[in-house]
Amino acid sequence: MNLLFLDFISMLSSLISSSLLAKGTFIGWWFFISACLFNLYLYWLHGVYGHVFLDIFYLLSAFWGLYSWHQNKNFKKISIFSSIFSFVSWMFLYSFCFFILKNLSGANFYLDSFSTSLALTALMLSIQRYPQSWLFWIAHDLINIIITYKISLTFQCIKQIIYIFIGIKGFLNWQKKSLVTH
């Protein structure tokens, strides 16, 4: 299969997923699952192992997201505690990812561990419907622009740029929904 075509299909699935999740739509998780499968293959071929592990985690977490969103339809408010907990979680995950990825000697392990830890934190917050998850996603996307540009995944790079705008929209939308549900 042509890698450029696969890169494009992966980008499309990811953008649809993110757009639907930014609106708070449950079906976005199904598109998220398909995007994970495409991304797993692409990143494996390019030796970006942090993203391979991340997409395996994403895939498993997507099922948790499906279950969680089906059970609880409320968005959570940003609080001091959730903000501090998010930051501390990210710092722990960064240290862990850095140690693992440095030992794997993957491509761009500094950026890869930074990006991976941001994404893990963002995903956990997204599953629980915290609006600040989108701030972590935006930071993750900024780092991923550099990573995907360096390894010539053109459509993945374009996707990361579009994600920044989706992230801003997602944050504003979820923030508004969290005020309505409380």
Structure summary:
The protein has 182 residues and is mainly alpha-helical. The chain contains seven helices and no strands.
For this entry, give a set of tags.
mainly alpha
Description:
- The protein is an all-alpha fold and 182 residues long.
- The protein contains seven helices and no strands.
- Helices cover 82% and strands 0% of the residues.
- The chain has helices at 3-22, 28-45, 49-71, 80-104, 109-127, 133-150, 154-180.
- The N and C termini lie far apart (49 Å).
- It has one domain (3-180).
- The protein is globular and about 45 Å long.
Structural class: mainly alpha
In total, how many domains does the architecture comprise?
1
How many H/I helices? 7
Characterize the largest beta sheet: strand count, sense, and whether it forms a barrel: none
Beta-sheet strand percentage?
under 5%
Q: Write the H/E string, N to C.
A: HHHHHHH
Radius of gyration over C-alpha positions, nearest whole angstrom: 16 Å
Number of strands: 0
How does the overall form come out from the CA principal axes? Answer: globular
Question: Topology, pairings included?
Answer:
Elements: H1 3-22, H2 28-45, H3 49-71, H4 80-104, H5 109-127, H6 133-150, H7 154-180
Helix pairs in contact: 1-2, 1-7, 2-3, 3-5, 4-5, 5-6, 6-7
